[in-house]
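Q: Sequence in, structure out?
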Amino acid sequence: MDGKDIFLSGVIIILLIGTLKTNGQQIHSATTDGNKALTDFDYNKPLFELNDEQSKNTYRHLRFSLISGYREGVKPTTGFGSFGNTLDTANGTARFYMINLSIQDLLTLGFNIPNNQFVLEVKDESKYRYTTNLGAKLDWMRKNTFCFEYLRPIGVYIDAATLKSEVARYFDVSVTKELRMTKVLVLKRTSLKDKIRSKGKTASMEIMNNVPLSDLSKITDSLQLPKLFDETGYIGLVDLNLDVNSSRSLTSLTNALRAHDLDLKEEMREIEMFVIHENFNNL
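A: Exactly. Output:
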């Protein structure tokens, strides 16, 4: 059995096993039948339903972690850190969860860190994160995203390192932050003329008007270009009047910036990167 079969069947590490149901359906149905929608999915309910013996447990030592496959029809957790936290005072449990996220996002607790801050030392990068060359995103998500949950007693502290370690153990990988020589983009001014100072109109990220120059990194990140370093030293808001929709490549973006006496240069620099490394060749 390879890693994909293991994870799609729902890998479970628990100390006290709950009833094998998830929001009204059997776990194996939710994790192996990608076409079966969980129409009654409730983000506030744990993936396990506690049985009578466990719900009456006065010692409140219930604790488990769970990983399962893509949940059809369920929106991924989103926000600042794509995860959720809920408390069940009746059963004395606290729950951390992430829904329908890539392995890369799970390993960084759903903070949607741009791809240009990762080094993947893995057999198949396409299993870890979505890129536009992989086709329709929903099709990719059905095969390559997962749900993770960690349930513990209320009042028991769990830090980010513990959660990351728990996720990494399921996928048999390690995640570190290391200095690596990496290709980056450096933004520089090509003249002393100020062609970019904002005229103070309504802020717009669509055309980069009345916004900080540092916001340009949001465009380069979305284009999956190397990490951007702003070395212009420019202070204040700017108007670039970029047609962001047409600036969909490094060449077109660079040409648009040159009209404002700005330039993007590719350089190699040693910067801190997240490194995901497979421990065994089983995925």
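Residues 181-272 form one domain.
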